[in-house]
Amino acid sequence: MEAAALPLALPAGATFHTAGEAVAGLTLLSQGVVRIFHALSPDCQFTVKLLRAPHILGVIEVMQASSWVASAEALTPLEGYMLPAPVFREALAMDHGFTTAVLTDLAASFEGTIRVSRAMGFDGCEQRLIRVLLEYAEHFGRPGEEGLVIRYPLSRQRLALEIGAARRSVDRALAALTSRKLLSLSPKGWQVLHEPEALRALLLAPG
């Protein structure tokens, strides 16, 4: 498979997979962080999750010979490879151990998919906002004097875009969380999570 892999390099900000487009093969990420999202329109999206390399995108789509089910954006510069779909399918057919490993990895991802489906259907603005902030904290969070500092530019407009909410709804949710001393904005403009565990607990709260 190594001989068939094609080098991949993308700048931060590039949308390199778009839902509905044909899948040429697997994307094998060796460096960088990507955002997986659904887009109802250019101004209304829903962030599903953030993924850090090493990671593989497109396994289900290639196995099903379907189009991309979600879009992907490079949050940082990306490096990796593209493995053509026919090469991957041939490896699945010829190597039982490889097939088992692929299926095990897919099974492990189902729990996260179920949680995201619930968020899209039932969570309110505040819970969707918390979930996205915690996703960014996992990949870009750095411990600071006042809490976990998300060292990635997250404007209120971007947060509104990523959770599919109006800007004023995000303003209200941030104000509510700030008044409870759960988060704040640093002098450099970074989001600071003062009580990450308390925020995670809010995701489990009913309603």
UniProtKB/TrEMBL annotation:
Keywords: DNA-binding, Transcription, Transcription regulation. GO terms for molecular function: DNA binding. InterPro entries: cNMP-bd_dom (IPR000595), cNMP-bd_dom_sf (IPR018490), HTH_CRP (IPR012318), RmlC-like_jellyroll (IPR014710), WH_DNA-bd_sf (IPR036390). Residues 123-197 form the HTH crp-type domain. Residues 1-92 form the Cyclic nucleotide-binding domain. Gene3D superfamilies: Jelly Rolls. The keyword DNA-binding applies. This is Crp/Fnr family transcriptional regulator. It comes from Archangium violaceum Cb vi76.
